[in-house]
Amino acid sequence: MEEEKKRFRITFNSPVILIFVAVCGLATLLNYATGGKSNEIVFMTYHSSLKSPMTYVRFITHIFGHANWEHYIGNMTYVLLLGPLLEEKYGPKLLIEMMGIVAVFTGLINYIFFSDVALCGASGVCFALILLSSFTGYKEKEIPITFILVLVLFVGQQVYQGIFVKDTVSQMAHIIGGLIGAVYGFMFTHDDKAKGKAV
């Protein structure tokens, strides 16, 4: 009797990352369908009245909104490449918490220090994932050379672009996201108990 051949199957391997990508995709689609109104109301943070409840909602939801499909695809490529590996290593709860902290910190700092700038997109989350991933193989009381190289190249690029390149990219969100990812890397990479637990 011949052994039954194994069949390939599609698996829902990284629920947090896949749901995040799907929500961002729906938000981007909605932005096109409403001519930008949905981003303005829900998926973009800016210096609006503190009396409005939506001001506080947007401190979190701005990470789901994207200006266009190119912006969305660029960010989601990083999220899909790095996110599943990190979700498997650290667990979904820790990843959700890190994303939430990135959202709130970038939203608050943008509100306080950049009152003339509207912020949307998951680039802060992307850079948190990039810096966190550089801790692969990290052992306690050691600093990986990969982390040092990523940090130097990353911070150098963002500072350069912030000073010399005039564009619509928020280097602030990149830097804050990267720093939060680095903090999480130092705090939890060596902790075998981190997986699946809230911090």
Brief overview:
The protein is mostly helical and 199 residues long. The protein has helices at residues 15-33, 37-41, 53-61, 69-90, 92-113, 123-133, 145-164, 171-188.
Task: Give the terminus-to-terminus CA distance.
Answer: 52 Å
- Assigned CATH superfamily: Rhomboid-like
Topology, number of strands: 0
Kindly report the average pLDDT value.
84
- Could you spell the SSE succession in H and E letters? HHHHHHHH
Number of helices: 8
Main sheet properties? none
Low-confidence runs of at least 5 consecutive residues:
192-199
* Overall CATH architecture: Up-down Bundle
Shape: globular
**Any idea of the CATH topology?**
Rhomboid-like fold
Domain count: the total is 1
**The level-1 CATH class:** Mainly Alpha
Gyration radius from CA atoms, angstroms: 18 Å
Helix proportion: 55-70%
Task: Please write out the topology.
Elements: H1 15-33, H2 37-41, H3 53-61, H4 69-90, H5 92-113, H6 123-133, H7 145-164, H8 171-188
Helix pairs in contact: 1-4, 3-5, 4-5, 4-6, 5-8, 6-8, 7-8
Keyword list:
globular, mainly alpha, 199 residues, 63% helix, Rhomboid-like fold, 8 helices, disordered C terminus
